[in-house]
Structure formats: C-alpha cells, structure tokens
Design brief:
The chain is of the alpha/beta class. It contains eight helices and seven strands; from the N terminus they run βαβαββαββαααβαα. The chain is globular and about 50 Å long. The chain binds adenosine-5'-triphosphate (ATP) and magnesium ion. The site of magnesium ion (MG) has 2 residues, from helix 1.
Length: 176
C-alpha cells in the first residue's frame, strides 16, 4: 500500500517519518526524491517554492518502487498522489506558529501556514481523494507515539482518527 504522510509544513511529518523508518518501515522523503529525479518544475515566486507535477511524480514512484509491502511517502504533496491511505499530521496553530518561528520563516510564510492549518486546508484536499483519510494530532504527543499510532491505524488495530477528529475551533474561539 502507498501511504501518504501529509500535513501543513512544520506539523511534524519528517520527525514522525524518521521514527517509522527506525521501526523498519519503508519511507520515502518526497522532497529528496523530487530533487534526485529532477522533478522540480517552474519556481513559484509568490509561494517561494517549486511546482511539481503530481501525475509525473506518481508515475515515477510507481516505476521505481519495488517494495511490495507498505510504502510511506513523507511530504506535503503526498496527498495529491494515488495513495491507499492518507495520514494528515496536525498541529495546533499556536504551537505550529512557534515551530515555524524557530525555523526562522518570514512572518507572511508563518501566517500563511498557520492559517492553512487552522482552516483544515490539507485535510480538505485529502478528503477530495479516493483514499482512506485519517488525522493524527502531533501537538502534545511525541513523534514516536504518533508513529506507533500510524502503524496501528494502517494495520487496522485501532479505529477513530477519521476526518474531523482533530479540530481547532476551540483554540480559534479563544483568539477571536
Ligand atoms: N511531536 C512533536 N513534539 C515537539 N516537536 C515536534 C514534534 N514533531 C515535530 N516537532 C518539531 O517540529 C519541527 C517541524 O518538524 P518536521 O520537520 O518534522 O515538520 P514537517 O511537517 O516535516 O515540515 P516540512 O513540511 O517543512 O517538511 C521540528 O523542529 C521538529 O523537531
Ligand atoms: Mg519534512
């Protein structure tokens, strides 16, 4: 199965992906894969990032992945690929703000990402697909715990975590 590990930048995808790798799972860092395979397209100045053709990326992965078991795809574009399961990593907007600030992101970029998280943008994009979608709140747990929960979800050992199981409405109300 192809399993997308997606989420707003800074929510913790890569931290969790590295814990999945440590437990023996096959994990592909999409950012690195796109670089290595020369799949970057036009630079989008406004978004300060390169465009990537999701169909080309999907084809390339299918040609190159020989693993017959589970393959986890770490990256905020992974939910645009033809995956069986999409795991959306979530982080409370106020904590995400601090994580992105520590990365020295410029304020407009921090705000864009914090707003996207508050408004469930990636979750909504994910539920537009045919995949089974789950959410993991990575605000207060450790990346190890989040990785174990993902393994349980994928193996069908636990329920819950469906779309809507994480929401920031209460936090947003405190701000307004
Ligand atoms: N559960 C957690 N608790 C505390 N800090 C965390 C947790 N998960 C990740 N972090 C921290 O948050 C920051 C962002 O994590 P990470 O790089 O994994 O995010 P990402 O979703 O992969 O971001 P990007 O989309 O930019 O690749 C890092 O400094 C990481 O150490
Ligand atoms: Mg990452």
């Amino acid at each position: 199965m192809m399993i997308a590990i997606t989420g707003t930048p800074g929510t913790g995808k890569t931290a969790i992906a590295s814990k999945l790798r440590e437990t023996g799972e096959c994990v592909i860092d999409l950012h690195q894969y796109i670089e290595e395979k020369g799949l970057k397209e036009r630079f989008d100045k406004k978004r300060d990032t390169y465009n990537v053709d999701a169909d080309k990326l999907d084809r390339s992965l299918r040609e190159n992945i020989k693993n017959e078991g589970n393959v986890f795809l770490d990256g905020h574009l992974s939910h645009f690929l033809k995956c069986d399961i999409i795991i959306v990593i979530r982080c409370s907007p106020s904590v995400l703000y601090e994580r992105l600030k520590k990365r020295n992101y410029a304020e407009p970029k921090i705000s864009e990402n914090v707003q996207a998280e508050a408004l469930d943008v990636i979750l909504c994009e994910s539920t537009d697909s045919d995949a089974h979608v789950f959410e993991i709140d990575n605000t207060s747990c450790t990346p190890e715990q989040a990785a174990l929960t993902i393994k349980d979800i994928v193996a069908g050992r636990i329920g819950g975590h469906g779309p809507g199981s994480v929401n920031w409405a209460e936090e947003m109300e405190r701000w307004c």
